[in-house]
Amino acid sequence: MRLLLEALFLKYHYDFRNYAMASIRRRLKQARQNLGFASFSALQESLLHDPDMVATLLRYLTVQVSEMFRDPSYFKAIREKVVPHLRTYPSLKVWIAGCSTGEELYSFAILFREEGLEDRTIFYATDINQEALQTAEAGIYPLDRLQHFTECHRQSGGKSSLSDYYQAAYGRASFDKSLRRNVVFSDHSLVTDAVFGEMHFISCRNVMIYFDRVLQDRVITLFRDSLVRKGFLGLGSRETIRFSENASAFHEFVRDEKIYQRRVD
Ligand SMILES: C[S@@+](CC[C@H](N)C(=O)[O-])C[C@H]1O[C@@H](n2cnc3c(N)ncnc32)[C@H](O)[C@@H]1O
């Protein structure tokens, strides 16, 4: 399996070598069985000769679970505690790192519109999974997910009805194009790519749980260097910077919601 991960990195620059191994092992096993390869070396052989196999393998190696206003109390804390700080800036940059299929991005875009910050904000929505990024860019979700999203939006302190932001047709909800007017979608890896400078808010939720400690440290350094002084970092409920060597660069701004603020120096 290690050789397979090396091949994926050396040939295609996708670096899973420092992901939490138990989960990678499980996922690779599943890929090997479902794709009908007798061994990992046969899978590796196919990967080296068939570039289409990369996208297939990425579907197994990256977890694309997301929802809008996921953990509504996180978004409520942003509205109530972070937005008053963000209002003091004439322009804002927000990075949704590991945005998957876009649900988190649209939650931010809607929240920022409701709070009157949308026009001064550029959003960067990044992920390594191109198929997920394409879905994010399209902003179309199965209509049966919308009832749950609507409830989460309400619990987050939503100031309007979620249905104001999408059109429903043929069992699908298409989110308003205007919500992505100020969005840059980009293929970016937290493992191998560089700093995104001068961000005021970085939201990276349910991504670092898949990384080992070394990699988590690297990513937190990347976030520290990508934030303006007093900029904010929001993580998922199961993630923390507490054990990172960079923990002292941040203070816990809203402890329960894993929202950190970069210290001045
Ligand atoms: C479980 S989803 C989280 C989606 C969203 N942030 C949320 O919380 O709802 C994890 C995402 O991290 C992405 N990811 C995994 N490794 C990454 C890396 N090295 N750089 C950027 N994104 C990565 C995956 O492709 C996937 O879209």
Features of the shown structure:
20% strand; 7-stranded mixed β-sheet; 265 residues; globular; 9 helices; 40% helix; alpha/beta; binds S-adenosylmethionine; 3-stranded antiparallel β-sheet
What does this structure look like?
The structure is a single chain. The protein is an alpha/beta fold and 265 residues long. Helices cover 40% and strands 20% of the residues. The chain contains nine helices and ten strands. The strands form two sheets. A seven-stranded mixed β-sheet has the order 6-2-1-7-8-10-9. It has a three-stranded antiparallel β-sheet with strand order 3-5-4. Helix 1 packs parallel to helix 3. The longest helix has 15 residues, at 21-35. It is globular. The model has no long low-confidence stretch (mean pLDDT 96). Bound molecules: S-adenosylmethionine. S-adenosylmethionine is lined by residues 62-66, 70, 98-100, 103-104, 127-129, 132, 189-191, 205-207, 236.
Can you describe this structure in just a few lines?
The protein is an alpha/beta fold and 265 residues long. The protein has nine helices and ten strands. The radius of gyration is 19 Å and the shape is globular.
Measured as a percent range, the helix fraction is 40-55%
Number of strands: 10
Low-confidence stretches: none
Q: List SSEs in N-to-C order.
A: HHHHHEHEHEHEEEEHEEE
Which word captures the global form? globular
